[in-house]
Amino acid sequence: MISILPTLKYLLAIVISAHWYGGLWTNFNDSSIHDPTQSPRFNCYPFLPDLFKQTPPTSSHHLIQTATARVDGYLRNRFETGAGDIESLSIAIVTGSGPLYEGNFGRVRSNGSEQDRMSSPPTTRHAMYRLASVSKLFEVVEGHVLKQRGALSWDDPVSKYLPQFTYCPEGYGPSSLYDSLATEPITLYHLATHLSGLGHDWPSGNVAKWPLTIDGAGAPPMNGLPFPSVSDVLESISHTRLVSPPGLYPSYSNTATGILGIALVAANQLATGDGADKEPGTYTELVRRDVFDPMGLNASHFLATEQNKDLLVVPSLQPDIADFDFLDAMNAAGGQWSSLSDLVIFTSTLLNPNSPNSVLTPYTMANWLHAAHAFEEDDWTESGLIWEIVKAKDSNGRLRRIYWKLGELYSYHSAVALHPGTSYGVAAPTAGPYPDAAAIAYNIFDIVQPYMDTALAELATLMYAGRWASADGNSTATILVERGTLFVEDFVLNGTDALATLGHPPIEATATARKRRVALRSTGRRDELRLDVGTAGFNGLKHMGCYSYWIGSDDWGMSRGAPTNLVYFTGSAEGWEKGHIEERVLHVPAMGDLEMRRQDIG
To answer: Domain Beta-lactamase-related spans what residues (predicted)?
Structure first.
C-alpha cells in the first residue's frame, strides 16, 4: 500500500533541521514564560480560550491578510524554484467558517492524456488528487457517524462484526506466551489507532533474495503482489504473527485500517438488520452515503473513470498510479481521490462541527481530539485515533498540539492538519517527485501561527481585559492578557480581597506594593472561566505542575448554587475585527446577581 519509510525519513529531516517550523521541534527546556525562577514543568498556565471556534477571523482581518500574503509568497517561490519537483500543488488555510486562503499552482495532466504538461489546463480548486493515507480520516469520520447512531462502539472486538477474523498473537521466540484471543481481542479502537499489532501491508511480499536485496518488500503493487481482496487480507492475518500484542505499541498498519473499513460495513448492516441488498455492501458505498453526500463532497471518489479523467492530477512519474483500483479491502486505507474544494469543506467541519455540512457532533469532535499513545522515547510525538500528533511551540514559546494526517503514494503526497488551540487547519494535496507535503503544511503553520496568536490575544483583550467594577464600586476586577494567558488581579467582592480568601499568595508587583494574580482557565464553554487557584504550587504542591490545578481546580465550594471560583461574561463579540463590540458584563454567580462593567472603555 503506502510505504511509511519515506515518511519517517523526511520527518527525521524535519527534526534535525533548524528551520523547520521555526526550529521549534525541540525539548521545552527554556525558562518559564511567567515565573523566571521556576522550570516550566512546575507551572501550568492555561492557554487563552479557543474563541476562534465560534468567531474566527476572516480573510479581511489585517493580520490574516499579512499572514496569507506571506504564505502566498512562500508557496510561489517554492513552486517556481523547485526544479519541477512539485508538479501540482493545492493549498488551503481553513477555519470553521471556511477558507482564509486558497492557492493552486501547476497544471493538470488528465488521466489518459498525451498532452505535454505545459499545455495542460491550470490546476484549480476542483482538480482531484489521490489522497493516499489521508483517506483514513474519512474512514474514521464514518466510524464516528455509526457510533453516533449506536451502531458500534470503538471498544467492540473486530470479531463481533467479522466472525471470520482471527489472528496469530504469539511471537517468534519460544518463550512468547499469550492468552486466548477472547482475552486479548483486537478492537475497532486498536485498528483506528494502529495499536492492533497488525503489520503494515499484509499479505507481505516475498523478499526472496534477502540479504542481497529487499526486492519484494513494501506495499502492493511494488512488492510484486496485486491489491488484496478481503479474503486475502483475512487469511494473511490468520497466520502472520502480530508485530506486538494488541494495545501495547503503535505499528502503522494499512492492513488494520483496511479491515476497519470492512468492519464498518458489517457493523452498519448488523445494526439495521439488513443485508447488502438494502444497506451498503461496500465501504465506498457506505462512506458516500454517510460522509460524501451529506457534506456535499462531489469530487471525492475512488476510481479514475471516463467521466472524471479531465480533472485528475496525474504525475509524470509513475502516471499509472492514477488507474489503481485499491479494491474494497484497501480503499479505506488509501484509495480515495478528493479536491481542494472538498478538503476545505471537510476540514472546516472538523473545526466547526456545528456547521450545516458537518456529520459529527461537537461531543464527538471533543472526544476525538486526544492522544491515544505518547511515545515515551521523545517529548513531541503522539498518536491518536487515526491522527499523528506533534507538539510545536506557539509564538509565546509554549508547546501546542497539531493533529495531522499525511498521505504518500509514490508521486502523490497530501496532508490535512488541524491546530485545535486556535481553530484553523491546513489542507495540502500535491503531486510530483517532492515527497513531503507535511513540510509544506508546517512551514505554513510556522508563518501563520504568530498572526493567529496575536489575533486571538486581540479578541481576548476586547472580550475580557480591562478594569471592571460594580455599580456601587465595592466589587472590582482587573483582567489582562499576557503571553497567551488571561490573568485577574485585584479581585475584590463587596470590599473583600477574594484572592486572599482563596488562599492565593501575593506576587511582587513593585518595590512598594504587592498584588495578587490568578490565571483564568476556560471551562470549554463560551465566556465561562474559573480562577485557576489550583496552580502556582498551591497547598505546597509546587512540584506538581498541572497536577496541582487538576487536584485543586474544583475544591472551593459552592455559594448561592455556583462555584466560588467561577465567573462568566455576557455580550456579543460581533464586530471584533474592527475593534468594536457591544458592552460586556462580568458576572460572579457565587455572589448572586453581582455584575461588573468595564470602566476603561475608550
So the answer is: 82-447
Domain covering 5-25+65-131+299-459 assigned CATH 3.40.710.10 in the classification: yes
| DSSP for 266-306, written as a single string | HHHHHHHT--TTTS--SHHHHHIIIIIHHHT-TT-BSS--T
Q: Which residues, 6+ apart, have CB-to-CB distance to 236 below 8 Å? A: 202, 203, 204, 228, 255
Closest C-alpha to 427, from 555, 330, 338, 355: 338
Give CA–CA dist 259/329, Å, rounded. Answer: 7
Topology at the third CATH level for domain 138-291: Beta-lactamase (3.40.710)
Q: What is the DSSP string of 465-516?
A: -EEEE-TTSS-EEEEEEETTEEEEEEEEETTEEHHHHTTPPPEE-SSS-EE-
What pLDDT, on the 0 to 100 scale, is given for residue 513? 42
Rounded to two decimals, the pTM is 0.90
Contacts of 312 (CB under 8 A, 6+ apart): 108, 110, 111, 127, 128, 304, 322, 337
Structural domain spans, the chain = 5-25+65-131+299-459, 138-291, 465-598
Average pLDDT, the chain: 87
pLDDT band at residue 116 using 50, 70 and 90 as cut-offs: low
